[in-house]
Design goal:
Helix 2 runs parallel beside helix 3 and helix 4 packs across helix 6. This protein folds into two domains: about 130 residues, Rossmann fold, CATH 3.40.50; about 190 residues, 3-Layer(aba) Sandwich (Rossmann fold), CATH 3.40.50.720. Strand 9, helix 9 and strand 10 form a beta-alpha-beta unit. By secondary structure, the chain is α/β, with parallel strands linked by helices. The strands form two sheets. Strands 8-7-6-9-10-11-12 form a seven-stranded parallel beta sheet, with helices on both faces. A six-stranded mixed beta sheet has the order 2-1-3-4-5-13, with helices on both faces. The chain starts with a strand and ends with a strand. The chain contains twelve helices and 13 strands.
Length: about 325
């Protein structure tokens, strides 16, 4: 099967090529999928996209007219794809529901530790031969309360790591697994109570209409003064402007982001020679207690290989007209 792979980065090409073998002909495209870039997929049967590619109705309709039959996502999230449009156009869609929950969970905790112990600032000082410790005081995570919103595989692993640190764990999820929770001394509660009691809050839920702007001014005001907020899930779970207000007032004491609501066209690209046009992220970058990574929580060799293997398995199923356990439908 000939496959147009959009947003193809150097770090993933070897894994994808190895997994495809001789079964699929991969056409690597650095371009993000957008209405104007659909022409690049002509002659292919399938299109493979990443998190910041455009899967809107306009794009889906253009792909269908170009003869595309399959849409393979190299991600777990699928909020960037209009599934009603793909179903109407007759495109089968699949995703990678998990690749390495450990990769994302470990990066989440890395952000916590780096923020707490001010590692970036400390390293910068050392490079300038400044060995002063003033302004680098952190806190013991042992004994603190960690609030985790969302107990999918990633959220559970974060909880397990934090339990290992000796944290008290508060959690919120739409479903409850009391047996698992008791193993790690997790106490279920509602989001507002979690916000008011937690020293550290970490988000691990998908982006839906229900979860968009889960963190907003009202919830920030309920949080402990100086709370640490971490988001490695989806950017729009937090209202970034409200978070900036929280940082300015000191209500939020630490902010760690691996995702950003307006990251499309910004993350995954080198803009070091450009003038930054996004005033919101420009403001975030002025805070010393903010640490931003460029949607790299997933970026381990294990995760990349798993993404590639699952993607090729999904395409195999489609090519052979087999049922695919990772297929998405309009009601997904």
């Amino acid at each position: 099967m000939k496959v147009a792979v959009y947003s193809a980065k150097k770090f993933e090409r070897d894994c994808l090529t190895q997994s495809a073998g001789s079964r699929h002909d991969l056409v690597f495209l650095e371009n993000r999928l957008s209405p104007g870039e659909t022409i690049l997929a002509e002659g292919c049967e399938a299109v493979c996209i990443f998190v910041n590619d455009d899967g809107s109705k306009n794009v889906v309709d253009r792909l269908a007219r170009a003869g595309i039959k399959y849409l393979a996502l190299r991600s777990a999230g699928f909020n960037h794809v209009d599934l009603k449009a793909t179903e109407k156009a007759g495109l089968r869609v699949c995703r990678v529901p998990e690749y390495s929950p450990y990769a994302v969970a470990e990066h989440t905790v890395a952000l916590m530790l780096a923020l707490n112990r001010k590692l970036i600032r400390a390293h910068t000082r050392i490079m300038d031969l400044n060995f002063s410790l003033d302004g680098l005081v952190g806190f013991d995570m042992h004994g603190k309360t960690a609030g985790i919103i969302g107990f999918g595989k990633i959220g559970r692993i974060v909880a397990q790591i934090m339990h290992g640190f000796g944290c008290k764990i508060l959690g919120y999820d739409i479903s409850r697994d009391e047996r698992w929770a008791s193993s790690y001394n997790v106490t279920y509660t509602d989001i507002d109570d979690l916000c008011s009691q937690s020293d550290i809050i970490s988000l691990h839920v998908p982006l839906t209409d229900r979860t968009k702007y889960l963190i907003h001014t009202g919830r920030i005001e309920k949080m402990k003064k100086g709370v640490m907020l971490i988001n490695t899930s989806r950017g729009a779970l937090v209202n970034t402007r409200d978070v900036i207000d929280g940082l300015k007032s000191g209500q939020i004491g630490y902010l760690g982001l691996d995702v950003y609501e307006e990251e499309k066209g910004l993350f995954f690209e080198d803009h070091s020679h450009d003038i930054l046009q996004d005033d919101v992220i420009a403001r975030l970058l002025t805070f010393q207690n903010v640490l931003i990574t460029s949607h790299q929580a997933f970026l381990t060799d294990t995760a990349l290989q798993n993404i590639a293997d699952t993607t090729m398995h999904n395409l195999d199923c489609f090519e052979k007209n087999l049922k695919c356990e990772n297929e998405l439908f309009a009601d997904s």
